[in-house]
Design goal:
Layout (H helix, E strand, L loop, with lengths): L6 E2 L2 E2 L10 E6 L4 E8 L6 E6 H5 L2 E6 L2 E4 L5 E6 L6 E6 L1 H10 L12 H4 L3 E11 L11 E8 L13 E5 L3 E2 L7 E6 L4 E10 L7 E6 L12
Antiparallel strand pairs: 1-13, 2-11, 3-4, 3-6, 4-5, 5-9, 6-7, 8-9, 10-11, 10-14, 11-12, 12-16, 14-15, 15-16
């Protein structure tokens, strides 16, 4: 059986949660690893975790942030809401205790909860300066819980496998996401020097040697609003 989550030929993230922005790893009831992203609801300001519906369906039992392993169960989540634009994305609203813990963990981390907004950021984002971060192993035959990252950039849609409507195609410039770095957040730089959270990694075709992969946006972005640099 193939490992559940890895970034092949990736760079190990140095100690400290801020280096990986808001990446959260999950261990599920089936023994798999998937990922999510710490964030704030842009409307309510509540602490949330963005993940894929497929990850949430596997019943996460523990979360990993940096060197910390935290219990994670139904008591930690007050609601799980599908995105009205992209139903494959699930927003988890957290209990007060879980929110307090995550807020303290990511306190002082710059821009870990800032979502990309195409209406005000489209001309300020640098699609060549993006990265994805994931918990998992770095080789095909190894499973681990270390946070790793690979640099990526926007790619032509033809390079991705079964790209669904609304998704964007990205390509790793060193290493590659693989089966399955589900839910690994993708961050990009703005011309201001800030980092924004763009979306979550979904489908890839790494076993065929393809370094391109699908990313589902988290807020407002559609394929007609973005062009290659």
């Amino acid at each position: 059986m193939l490992p559940a989550g890895r970034l092949l030929n990736s760079a190990m993230v140095s100690s400290g949660v801020c280096t990986g922005s808001g990446t959260i790893g999950f261990t599920t009831s089936t023994g798999q690893i998937c990922n999510g992203a710490y964030g704030k609801n842009p409307t309510t300001g509540e602490t949330v975790i963005y993940t894929l519906a497929t990850c949430w369906a596997q019943s996460p039992t523990a979360g990993v942030i940096g060197d910390e392993t935290i219990p994670f169960d139904s008591c930690s989540v007050t609601s799980a809401t599908a995105s009205p634009l992209y139903p494959t994305v699930t927003t988890l609203t957290l209990s007060p205790m879980a929110s307090f813990f995550l807020d303290k963990m990511f306190e002082g981390c710059p821009n870990s909860d800032c979502l990309y907004n195409p209406f005000v950021m489209q001309n300020a984002i640098d699609w060549r300066k993006c990265y994805t971060a994931s918990y998992g192993a770095t080789t095909l035959g190894e499973m681990g819980g270390q946070l790793n990252m690979v640099p990526v950039s926007l790619a032509d849609a033809t390079q991705c496998f079964n790209l669904p409507a609304g998704s964007q195609c990205f390509k790793a410039t060193s290493g590659t996401p693989c089966t399955t770095d589900n839910g690994a957040p993708l961050y990009c730089s703005l011309t201001t020097g800030e980092t924004v959270l763009y979306g979550l990694t979904t489908v890839n075709n790494c076993l065929s040697g393809n370094t391109a992969f699908n990313v589902m946006p988290l807020f407002g972005a559609t394929g007609t609003e973005i062009t290659l640099p």
